[in-house]
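Sequence in, structure out. First:
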Amino acid sequence: MATWLQKVWVQRFLFLAAVLVLWDGFFRLGGYTGNLFASPTDVADSLAQGLRSGRLPEALLASLRRLVVGYGLSIGAGVVLGTVLAASRPVKNTLGALMSGLQALPSISWLPLALLWFGAGEGAILFVTVMGSFLAITVSTEDAVRNVPPLYYRAGEVLGARGCRLYCQVILPAAFPAIATGLKLGWSFAWRSLMGAELIVSTASLGQLLSSGRAAGDTALLLAVMLVIVAVGLAFDRFVFGALDRVVRTRWGFQGRAVAAAS
């Protein structure tokens, strides 16, 4: 029995079951009326209705499409700029100070400027998504490259690698485990920024469904969409970044260290 309870899927199932029981009990004992709260059954019905009507899948696909485009742009620009900041002291002393300052700015603060520049449409949402993750990836990449041991630089130069070739073939691969952590952090910022922008810009999206649920006082719809947003986050964490973590641990030898430490 004890061995059975130690299985991960059993623990997660029991935890989720307990959450649902407590949620339903809180709803029933609280005596909520109107649209102040919703029971698990109400949320399940709202999810089923959204799936049947196609409204929820359409909104989810629209948000994921924006996320892929915005996050992809953030990765490309952030990794390049972060590497340049780590490689060049003058760039670090000038542009680096600006990057550090802008990172403290909440991503949703870019939305008013985005609306002025691009209007209330796709351009504004994409801009806010990029700015939400680009700075985090840039700073994380800079730290990762800067913390590569000097031995790698000397070994690469001895083998004939110089300039861009040194960074592409030696330094960036050596820094990739730390860069991967920054990519995961950047994704979380991109997802949050996207949801914030979609709440205000009225286009087909998960954020727009949240806004519609608030306007209609539909708590069940709000909670249903929130559960979908959480599910997307869990899916990315497990299937995308979980796979990336396994590759990093295997390719860079961390898995062997973990096994040795456990033994």
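Second:
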Amino acid sequence: MSVDVRLRGGDLATADTNAVALPLLPGKETPVVGSGRETAAALGVDLDAVLMRESAKAEAGEVLRIPLYSGAVRAIYLVGVGDASPRSLRKAGAGLARRAKDEAVVAIAIRSDRADAGLSALVEGLVLASYRFRAAGAEPKGWQTERFELVTEAPKERQPVLDRTLAVVRAGLRARDLTNTPSLLKSPQWLAEQATAIAAGGGLGIRVRDEKALVAEGFGGILAVGMGSTRPPRLIELTWTPRGAKRHVVLVGKGITFDSGGLSLKPNDGMVSMKTDMAGGAAVMAAMGAVRDLGVRVKVTGLVPAAENLPSGTAQRPGDVITHYGGRTSEVLNTDAEGRLVLADALAYATARLRPDVVVDLATLTGAASLGLGRRHAALYATTDALAAELTEAADRAGERVWRMPLAEDYAFALRSRVADLANIATDKRVSGGSIVAALFLSEFVDGCPWAHLDIAGPARSDGDEDEVTKGATGFGARLLLRWLEKMG
């Protein structure tokens, strides 16, 4: 359950308010937004004296707590908003959420003339930074905030903005929950069951192909990756079909519920985080669950090829040749390059059978992407400049960072195989661009359809709390997809 966020008018401090938050803008006089000085004075605090004593800079995310010792309000929080850009307000919201974690109800003064993007960013910071994963049967630890109240003039006029923002943010939280779930529980069938629940709650159509259907229809890549596990693979297909839709978008998310590397076994340290190897699939499922609430006007299909990549006597072997959906073949030189094998099936199926106008896939695909771009940027590959620009703009609005990378055809020779149409890793040691090579492999299965690939191996998980990101799964991609889809018509 996410923290509650409400808009209201009236006085900042009410009978059930535990704390009030006053935004600060940087400057020589460190101005307080709105009637902050009057509110502080009413609570017995000389705000100018406090600011002078503490030398507050009002940098984005800087939070100063002033304790109070009488009355219902326990504290005033001074929150730096920097240049008040969406990025700064997102940091400010996150900083407040962490600093005020012991307050049950926090009222925040916001300017009535603040742009919609600013309101959305503040809410994103508050809610995302308040997240804690709750394992089955356990309560989240250390967080007590129940509600943030955004106090402004004409709150009813701003309610639609808040509602849309919360729909997007809660999709990000759902993606985090799905991804953080331990793989002991999270089998391909479990993931399919979660998708079924999402479909029921979001007005979506759903089809789940089990292993028999995958065999019958020729999904050789998904089957090959999943054949080492006792828990068989699935292909999840979610569909949103609004009236009058003139365009069709297909979203594809990698759904490897645990990745040991298969017979090309990872070291133990490399496996610890592999419950998150289905983060792309989680982002697609979570985004699909929110399209109705956002009133998305295009047809959207979400595909999640789900499998568990384990070593056993039935696992695929290095040197195997597999046949993908549609008949293209791959020589498997490394069973730890499995994500591209399941995605290839889904992409081939999407372009051959669903006839979309555009396809976007998300996958924790290569460590090479994070080596080049770090842990906060996804690598973006696109076959058209227009699609790359749309996704980059959507990422910026969502607070999720991408960086466009080249689909360098000069590297394509490295995927040549003597026994199949393609090798699943580079066969020429002169080519070391692992993320680019993986994207080139996938591009062979889209049949000329406008397509983008997001390699989210870096930003899909975090080693610690930073701004709105929390340790563990980040939910990266769900908000980006929704911000992109809501602008399409």
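Remark: The first helix runs from residue 36 to 42.
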